[in-house]
Amino acid sequence: MPVTTQAAVTTAAPAAPRGRTSRRSILFFAFAFAVIADPVSSVAYAIEAALRALHGDLALLLPTMSLVIGLVVVVTANYWQLVRRFPKGGGAAAAAARAFGPRWTFLPIGALVVDFVLTIGISIAAAASAVIALFPGLAAWRIPLALVLLVVVAGLTWFGHGGRLLFAFMTVAFVVISVAVLILGFASPHTTGHAATSAAPGHSAVLAVVLAFPVAMALATGIEAPSTAIAQLGQLDDTHRRRFGRGTLALLVVIVGGLTLALTALAVQLRIGIPGSDSTQIADIAHAAAGPGWLYGAFQLTSSLLLLAAASSSFQAGPGLLKALSGTAAEPGVLPPVLGRANRHHTPYWSVVVYLVGAALIIVAAAGQEQELVLFYAVAVFVSFLIGLLAMTRFARGEGKPALAWVNGLAAAAVAFTLVVNLLRGWPVLSLVATLLIAAGLYIRWNRAGRPTGIEDVEAQAEAA
Questions:
Q1: CB-CB contact of 226 with 303 (8 Å)
Q2: Vertex 244, ends 242 and 248: CA angle to 5°?
Q3: Burial 283-318 (b: 16+ CB within 10 A, else e)
């Protein structure tokens, strides 16, 4: 009997570590693919935004998107460092406070608030465009369709964060269907388009690319998410949170970069230019590659669901941030307590209403056209990127790491250039104005509230809650 017992113990002992490993793998899948839903969904409109900025010049589309992916890698490298330094979450807000003082926290927070509203608006508008591309008869109902989708997604937030795993599956489904479309498109396309390879021969190619790529930097939105979302992983220690955060960033670069460049190359090969008013470029690519059959329908369905998932994610993160800013019963907040009132699913419903109204206004103002909103998109979030890079540059200099300081400094210069070029287009300056006004308002309220401590960790608190 003792021998049998000992054998049983010996055999069963490894089961616990294997069980923990299996649970962590499932957790990583749910966490990573849910968090990257936003940047992956950006593929649906970023390539078309670049082509429109190039005035339809397909010959320059691949170099432009390659430059975009290069800058995405640079920005991701900064957040790789942020995850190492702040394994409990916090992102650019925490970095800004530690590097320059707590008052600088409000600039990235203001940028995030604007970014969440724009993410919801552009994702809903793009989802409506995906539906219209599949059912062109709905084109006349674009704005009502977008508003209905907006209300549905906002309503689903009433039930809290239960959809995280569903978001992950939506991301995976879109990636799988996209790969199938790409394989068929390169191997045996259904048809080809008729767009000219070069719409403006003889012009300065370098200048055209330099001026066009900042518009497509909408692809970079959502990169900051892993550095703050790791605060949700309270069941893990700092080491594993770092691994989850960095693993998610690496996955983001591989999937977003791979899909973007592959779809761009296929668009050039099949000569898919600027789409008509009832379609999108990515829909035209899928239609040319797969034809009007089930694969095209699946592509449109998964892309629209992924876009709705990205909107839903911001509908959770944005109100969560306002709730954290409203404080608790024990600690006074910066915002009115009403914004922190939550239902039994921990959803701050009045904060959800704030984002619902904001997103509805910009959808109506843009006539439900996501390409009108793209110009505003890569402004607010780039303010956050810039602050984070400057903070990491200061940390590197203080720690005696000149090489890393130079890398971060050059990355900050590239981000600043992207920001300036987008602002020079005129109307996108409204995103910057909104960011500065929100940041200034929050700073004033923080002072009036007696400068409550812990403001630099508000992003981490929002995610943890």
A1: no
A2: 115
A3: bbbbbbbbeeeebbebbbbbbbbbbbbbbbbbbbbb
The 3-state DSSP class for residue 13 equals coil
What's the CA dihedral at 125, 127, 128, 129 to 10 degrees?
90
Helix or strand holding residue 33 (H, E) = helix 15-35
The residues, ordered by sequence, that sit 6+ positions from 385 with a Cβ below 8 Å of its Cβ are 75, 78, 92, 220, 223, 224, 415
State how far the alpha carbon of 85 is from the alpha carbons of 238, 407, 454, in Å: 10, 17, 17
For residue 444, the model assigns a pLDDT of: 92
| Per-residue model confidence (pLDDT) at position 13 | 41
In DSSP notation, 262-306 reads HHHHHHHHHT--S--TT--HHHHHHHHHH-SSHHHHHHHHHHHHH
| pTM assigned to the model | 0.88
Q: Give per-residue pLDDT as tens, 74-133.
A: 888 888 888 888 888 777 888 888 888 888 889 999 998 999 999 999 999 999 999 999
Look-up of token digits 């749910």: 30
Helix, strand, or coil here: 237? coil
For the cut 50, the answer to whether the pLDDT of residue 1 exceeds it is: no
Both tokens of 106, joined, read: 């409000």
- Extract the tokens encoding 364: 């109506």
Helix (H) or strand (E) holding 449: none
Structure token pair of residue 265? 């190359």
